[in-house]
Amino acid sequence: MFACIYIPNASGDTAAALLECASTFSPRVENTGAGTVVFDVEGLERLFGGYAEIAEQIREQARTRGLPANVALASNADAAICAARGFEGVTVIQRGTEAARFRDLPLGVLNPSPEILETLQRWGIRTLGAFAKLPAEQVSERLGQEGVQLHKLAQGGRERPIVPHVEALRFVEVMELDYELIAIEPLTFILSRMLDQICLRMRSRNLATQEVRLALGSYVRILNLPLPVRNSRLMTKLFILDLEAHPPGIAIRRVEVEAIPAEPRVVQNGLFVPLSPEPEKLEVTLARLKAVVGEENVGSPEILDTHRPDAFSMKRFGVSESNRSETFRNWTNPASQIRNPKSQIERPERRFGASWRSGRVQSEISDFGSEMQDLSNFKFLNPSAGSKEATSASPIIHPTPAISLTLRLFRPPHEATVQLRNQIPTWIAFHGVHGPVDTACGPWHTSGDWWRPNMWDREEWDIEVADTLYRIYYDVHLDRWYAQGVYD
Amino acid sequence: MSAPYVELHAASAFSFLEGAALPEEFAGACATYELPAMALLDRDGVYGAPRFHLAAKKAGIQAHIGAEVTSTTGVRYPLLAETREGYQNLCRLITRMKLRAPKGKGAITEDELAAHARGLVCLTGGEHGPLTRAISNNNGCPTLEGLIDIFGREHVYVELQRHYNRAEEAINQQAIALAEIFRLPVLATNGIRYGSPHQREILDVFTCIRNHRTLETAGCLLSNNSERYLKRPEQMLQLFHDIPQAIANTIELSRRLQFTLKDLGYQFPKYPVDDGETMTSFLRKRTEEGARNRFRPYDEKSRRQIERELALIEKLGLEGYFLIVWDIVQFCLKNNILIQGRGSAANSAVCYALGITAVDPVKMDLLFERFLSEERGEWPDIDLDLPSGDQRERAIQYVYQRYGALGAAMTANVITYRGRSAAREVGKALGFDVATLDRLTSLVGHFEYKDESDTLEAQFRTAGFNMREPRIRKFLELCVNLQDLPRHLGQHSGGMVICQGQLDSVVPLEPATMPGRNVVQWDKDDCADMHIVKVDLLGLGMMAVLEDSLKLIREHYGEAVDLAHLPQNDPASYQAMQKADTVGMFQIESRAQMSCLPRMRPEKFYDIVVQVAIIRPGPIVGNMVHPYLKRRQGREPVKYPHPALESVLARTLGVPLFQEQLLRMAMLTAGFSGGEAEELRRAFGFKRSERRMKEVEVKLREGMNKNGIIGEVQDQIIHSITSFALYGFPESHAASFALIAYSSAYLKCHYLAAFTAAMLNNQPMGFYSPATLVKDAQRHGLKVKPIDITKSDWLCTLEFEECTPILRVGMRYVKGMRESVARLIVDERARAPFTSVDDLARRVPELQKREMILLAEIGALNFFHPAHRIHRRDALWQVERASRRTGPLLETIEQPDGRSPLAQMTSEERLVADFHGTGMTVGPHPMAYYRSVLNALGVLRAVDLANVPNGTYVRVAGGVIARQRPGTAKGFVFLSLEDETGISNAIITPDLFAQNRFTVVGGKFLLIEGRLQNIDNVISVKASRVEILPVSEAAVTSHDFH
């Protein structure tokens, strides 16, 4: 006999509870899906009495777990499933009576494909009884193998072995400590041993991990790795660095480490592929950097596709395989070895210096005319454009040579006090700098994100104060002036 | 005005998603800022030019015309028309690029530019212009040299735009340096895309729509500030204070640009005549020939009228136009295509003589000035009705072939953003999810009548939006701002413009979506405003029905019916009209018409003319319907506002019903000339303006005062004229329609099978669904047979059973069936009859399983063996096997049809399958199955209501076949319910509608209780309770919201 537990309208997270419930009765449980499990109950009569009692016991077990289940017992697994789906509460179907009992059940209990269900409905077939009456051979001609299987089910099912559920592999090590740990350093030894064990087990199954979870009592840290590894030393190092940056702040009595298995990385280095940093070493280096400067300050800056000034996000830094192979292709292609200097000039906004220091990011990138006119009488000072490369190609014109200036941004921008005459800045003070504005060029007006609460609208000026060029701006919404950066 | 600046580079919303303001807004702003002129350069077209020209004329500024023309290199050349030749070159250039590319695409080569450069001034453009790109590519010098070569040094201006942008200014500095080197003038513009800064938001939304992005993902595609608006001259002066010559040059260039659309150079088309003939003599001959044939008798009055019209036609030089229309009519007659002129052309005796119209205007005393007058300074507008579909297309293609692809084109139809489309597009741009947008757009009302709850804001609220949330408020604000902005260019249903010589030198042409058609860049109002003569070739479903009916009658009854010589005063036709038994009859079948017919009781042709015209917003709003009907029934004496008007209003019993009457009233009472009277009509017409209306009213009153018509009588006459002018029908138009209405009534009464088949073959058209047409025909004794794979064609056909014609429904009614496959079935069947489902599947392998199932479900496969009919489920059982292809070995072995183990469909299942598969049933009406239950509920049948006294409280029930909420009905909803005996009408008050909105709008079968109104055989139930009747799951359809 087989038993089936079915939860109508089950959500995904009930599967584990159902399996657990069923496993209290049998070690061989099939997870049929859609809130259904089926298992063999043959031989349980000696423990619980008759089949009705067994069914009641199963339902009781489900109820104690908060599962409002239908339970059915039948001579084969499929019949038990149909009965559990079709009848509420507890049902026991004696061998040979399946077809009669199923006669009035709706087709839905067979869980047919939508196409077959539609065809049967078109035929006016609404119940299992009506379906069962159709000649098997003709059903086969019209509905194929799936139809035949469903037809057999409607007639009372068929003998088939169940497919037992197998628990997923877990790589977990747990250690209860005799004494409380307060410092991080003693953990190194413990972690190292535990991770050694895990890596050993993974190696024996040819697996690696990309995600390791460390629980120190209630304090949990998760280590995400860019590539699957099984190097216990590396993982220990990374955990220790991480814990130094984020100390648990509690005494440690219990250590639990779990690695989520993944397929190991297969790498075949090419003869001409340039060497890139070992991912493991790079990860350790980045972890060290993060510990020093903070996580949000490590990575590759990526300019966002917007006109909003200075909009960027930090992307996780790493060397991907695709980048490496791209490099390889470029390197092996002679044409690409010659870098076109203009290509860097054409799209300057795509470049963003990766180096950084003291909280200032070296950025853009403004071609700024060297010929500064006296603008005391008018607002607009026109910076000339074009780089040296651009103008040198022209055979006729020799416009003013342009110099390329680098703007060093203040992060965050310094609030400034600005005096205006005819709406042109004439005096400024900010962060230790003050004095009359010798030359002002602007305004450059940008605004955007008008559909958001954090829209922006600002007027920028390039000013010269005591032989130094600054970029300042007026935030229209905040009605304040800021110094944004200094030109090198 | 001495403004120091002229804006010479503006793109309006007619750049389609690249501009956010209408040309009129620009013209208005120019007037406010005292700019003397402005240039409109829309992208790849002059779509907005007529509107800009007219608005500029009104505002007293000069409208320069040009366009931004896209080149194959991706840059856009801003070109200004300096002379008429320049404008013509521009139009030809755009036409050339458009006609060879798919709709909305196209680009010109530099060679083409060079070939069409004369008379054009080229600006170097802004961010999309040739110079910006060239400077960025370090290529400025060759580019400028190239432009000078093409246009000449005097016709190239180096354009400078300043939008407070660093990169742009860098380009400007290079451009200035280049201008100095090449000694070219610099020109300041603002490259405007909208009228005021806040419209930048609309432009950003348009950018998203154009690029299929949301505002969040559009990034740098959006504008980086709001500076592309029309700036005041002083702002521009300040912006370019360092380059004053750039500002000064705008004035200098504006003075050079002499061309305006006033100087369009359009010429009337000429009709080719034989040597020794002139168009005048030819027209006179054709008119004389026609008049002798058509005017019976061709008396002195008719002669005088024709002579008067011909004199005016010759004076205005319109002979060519009349001959062209005559030529189209001749083509149709020779090719057996029904054609009939409608509208004001029917006022013309010349049109009647030429066979263009079918109503004798002399006999009917119609007013010629309504059609053509010297004072008006406008060209006549002849509308021709043709059978919709292929026949109309043949006529259109004839015009193309006769005048060349560049000599004739359809007028455009500018599709603008309305509530629904605006909400959908803005919602998408703001990133709202599809389900939310669907919810919102489904709530945007369809009814003609809009109550207070029908505002966009209320609809947003009903859709569950929180109006306090800023994002939602922004959504609403943008939707409102997007209203009426152009979305894309469509094709007008039938307006064709023809030009002497090349039309593409007058206005650019584009390919229409429909193959073989070109469309001009202006809509029909623009063409009229630009005095371009137009012929409307309109598709009229009923014309196609008449034509098809005649063909079926010829083929199956062996009779030749001539519509021009139908028996007049046919009793059967008039009886049907008097009983309001008019389902399917042209123009007199709607619920409103049916409720009027029993009171009107038409007895002669002119009554139909009145009937067609009376159910119109004009007479209804002007409260003229009831006085007319009462006078007709003798319940009210016939009286006239003034004795002088008796001659004008006598035939409509003292009540003005037609536009001609109000013109004549003005002529008689205020001494207006024919042309002045027509001017009055236009002043109060669709494009009404307060100022013009006031002027005309003053003139009207002055005239009446002179004639001694004062006080209340004067007010009454003026009220009649003003309230009526907007919506009234011209009598000539009503007469043309009445002819078709009478023809349809005659055919329905005498050749019901042919008429019904033709109606069904020309759906969708008319007021009722095919299901209602079939039921109505069945009630009139027509036997209708279901779709049968062994007998049905693609179209509905006629068969004979014991010498009685019966109707066979065609396979076009199988929803989802492909016409090509249906025709294959018919061809294969002609070779040898099908013997089984298997045989059908084998011999027509193109037939898909889905289609076979559809055919089986509706019972079309039941008839392979007449002696052993199978039922629908048997067929479905066979289809399932037949559709599983066997291998080649067994393919030729046919499996005979046999009984299946499946149960037969119940009547409800058959009903559901019929409506689901064909939208109709030829079996009993769904209500018939439940009659005994309905009797028990005290529900009366539609046919029984006629015998129930007025004021009785009754219950009626039926399938809803029409729901209406007319704009003139103050929120009342009118329902038509159908049962197996006929149609009953119900009236829902606004309050009851508000309480039962879902039931009334969503219910397929309704039970309605209320007092019966049975007055003068007009029967309806004033509902006090409405409920959904769960009689059938059949998906009956209703024609809603007319």
Discrete helix count of chain A:
15
Tally of helical runs of chain B = 43
Q: Characterize the biggest β-sheet of chain B.
A: 7 strands, mixed
Largest sheet geometry of chain A: 9 strands, antiparallel
CATH architect. name of the domain at 2-154 in chain A? 2-Layer Sandwich
**What's the count of strands of chain A?**
20
Topology:
The complex is a heterodimer of chains A (488) and B (1042).
Chain A lengths: L1 E5 L7 H10 L5 E3 L4 E5 L4 H4 L2 H14 L5 E5 L2 H10 L3 E3 L5 H5 L11 H9 L5 H6 L2 H19 L16 E11 L3 H20 L3 E9 L2 E11 L2 H14 L6 E11 L16 H15 L6 E4 L8 E4 L5 H12 L1 H4 L3 H6 L9 E2 L2 E9 L19 H5 L10 E19 L2 E7 L2 E4 L2 E10 L7 E10 L2 E8 L4 E8 L1
Parallel strand pairs in A: 4-5
Antiparallel strand pairs in A: 1-3, 1-4, 2-3, 6-9, 7-8, 7-9, 10-11, 12-13, 13-14, 14-15, 14-20, 15-16, 17-18, 18-19, 19-20
Helix pairs in contact in A: 9-10, 10-11
Chain B lengths: L6 E4 L12 H11 L3 E7 L5 H11 L2 E9 L5 E6 L2 H16 L10 H6 L4 E4 L6 H7 L3 H12 L4 E6 L4 H17 L3 E4 L10 H12 L3 H4 L14 H7 L4 H13 L22 H16 L5 H17 L2 H16 L5 E3 L6 H5 L27 E7 L2 H14 L4 E9 L2 H12 L3 H10 L12 H7 L7 H13 L3 E13 L10 E3 L6 E6 H6 L4 E7 H17 L13 H8 L12 H10 L4 H10 L2 H5 L3 H8 L13 H4 L9 H12 L3 H10 L6 H17 L4 H15 L5 H20 L1 H10 L8 H10 L3 E3 L11 E5 L2 E5 L10 H13 L5 H7 L5 H9 L14 H11 L24 H12 L12 H6 L16 E12 L8 E7 L2 E7 L1 H6 L1 H6 L2 E11 L2 E11 L10 E2 L2
Parallel strand pairs in B: 1-2, 2-3, 5-6, 6-7, 9-14, 10-13, 15-17, 18-23, 20-22
Antiparallel strand pairs in B: 3-4, 4-5, 8-9, 10-11, 11-14, 12-13, 16-17, 18-19, 18-21, 19-20, 21-22
Helix pairs in contact in B: 1-2, 5-6, 6-7, 12-13, 17-18, 17-20, 22-33, 22-34, 23-33, 25-33, 29-30, 29-32, 33-34, 34-35, 37-39, 38-39
